[in-house]
Recover the amino acids of this structure.
């Protein structure tokens, strides 16, 4: 399933070329008063076989302690960049389905083209 292209808030224009187009940057959303605090630990540029909690001989006591009291994924696919991986983890959808193809703060000003 692909994410629908939502253009209802897009106030720019998409022309035939980039020069004919006008980007539109919306203010990023902010959590409301009383929003819960959630901590997600995503370790970049590592493999599951590098941690003691997954059977490695490498001593990783801090990661092992987090894993003992947290949630461990045993079947997860990642992207070559951290932002698309984070998008998949947080939404449960493919990074392509949510329009995240690169670094998250690379804002293009056009809908469905984050990163």
């Amino acid at each position: 399933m692909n994410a629908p292209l939502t253009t209802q808030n897009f106030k720019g224009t998409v022309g035939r070329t980039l020069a004919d187009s006008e980007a539109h940057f919306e203010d990023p959303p902010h959590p409301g008063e009383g929003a819960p605090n959630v901590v997600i630990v995503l370790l970049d540029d590592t493999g599951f076989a590098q941690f003691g909690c997954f059977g490695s001989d490498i001593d990783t006591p801090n990661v092992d302690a987090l894993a003992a009291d947290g949630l461990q994924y045993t079947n997860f696919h990642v992207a070559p960049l951290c932002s698309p991986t984070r998008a998949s983890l947080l939404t449960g959808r493919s990074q392509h389905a949510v329009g995240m193809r690169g670094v998250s703060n690379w804002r293009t000003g056009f809908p469905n083209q984050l990163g």
